[in-house]
Amino acid sequence: MLLSIVVAVAKDGAIGKGNDLLWHLPGDLKRFKALTTGHTILMGRKTFESLPNGPLPQRRNVVISRSLQSSDGVEVFASIDEALETLSESDDEVFVIGGGEIYRQTLERAQRIYLTEVDATFPDAEVFFPKLESGEWKEVERTTFPRDERNEYETVLVVLQRRN
Ligand SMILES: NC(=O)c1ccc[n+]([C@@H]2O[C@H](COP(=O)([O-])OP(=O)(O)OC[C@H]3O[C@@H](n4cnc5c(N)ncnc54)[C@H](OP(=O)(O)O)[C@@H]3O)[C@@H](O)[C@H]2O)c1
């Protein structure tokens, strides 16, 4: 099973504040939807609770939590190991979609990162993506999306593959 991380990161590594994102970037959300639709997404309980309309449609939603027992439209696991073990029996690729705690605990096991670099800094951010060791990752794709009237910052989608 291929474990892929999907994340959007500001220049300072920031990914969130107040259990929300730091920006409104519909273009990035559209790419996120295209990438993950039809697949399994794995997320922490806080990220799940930050979704404005609950589970994301047309995806198998898996939530990691010690406190949540169950919730409509999602499968809850009390540990990451247990979730990955179960998913490895049924899934070819699982997308880890956050947040900070879950990224930190899955990074070592991830083979690919779909990294959106957001061209901005957020001094009041509270949640951060772990620092990547450049020697561990090879860039395989890079696409720039300029800012426009709907997307307030320029973004660069970088696809990173783990070096073996
Ligand atoms: N920029 C991006 O791409 C992006 C993507 C996703 C999220 N975010 C942002 O990230 C922030 C949320 O991240 P976060 O780090 O605060 O929370 P999180 O990783 O989404 O969720 C943390 C929760 O997951 C559960 N958990 C974590 N490790 C566990 C383990 N080993 N076993 C069982 N349960 C475990 C716990 O739930 P219980 O407390 O229920 O036990 C914990 O409170 C928000 O601001 C969100 O908007 C940004």
Structural summary, described in words:
The protein has 164 residues and is of the alpha/beta class. The protein is 20% helix and 34% strand. The strands form two sheets. It has an eight-stranded mixed β-sheet, with helices on both faces. The protein has a two-stranded antiparallel ribbon with strand order 2-8. The radius of gyration is 15 Å and the shape is globular. The two termini are 16 Å apart. Residues 7-8, 15-17, 19-21, 43-47, 50, 64-68, 78-80, 97-102, 105, 127 line the site of NADP nicotinamide-adenine-dinucleotide phosphate. NADP nicotinamide-adenine-dinucleotide phosphate binds next to strand 1, strand 2, strand 3, helix 2 and helix 4.
Helices and strands in order:
Layout: E1 2-10, E2 14-16, H1 26-36, E3 40-44, H2 45-50, E4 60-64, E5 75-77, H3 80-88, E6 93-96, H4 100-106, E7 112-118, E8 127-128, E9 137-145, E10 155-162
Parallel strand pairs: 1-6, 1-7, 3-4, 3-6, 4-5
Antiparallel strand pairs: 2-8, 7-10, 9-10
The chain binds NADP nicotinamide-adenine-dinucleotide phosphate.
Residues 7-8, 15-17, 19-21, 43-47, 50, 64-68, 78-80, 97-102, 105, 127 line the site of NADP nicotinamide-adenine-dinucleotide phosphate (NAP).
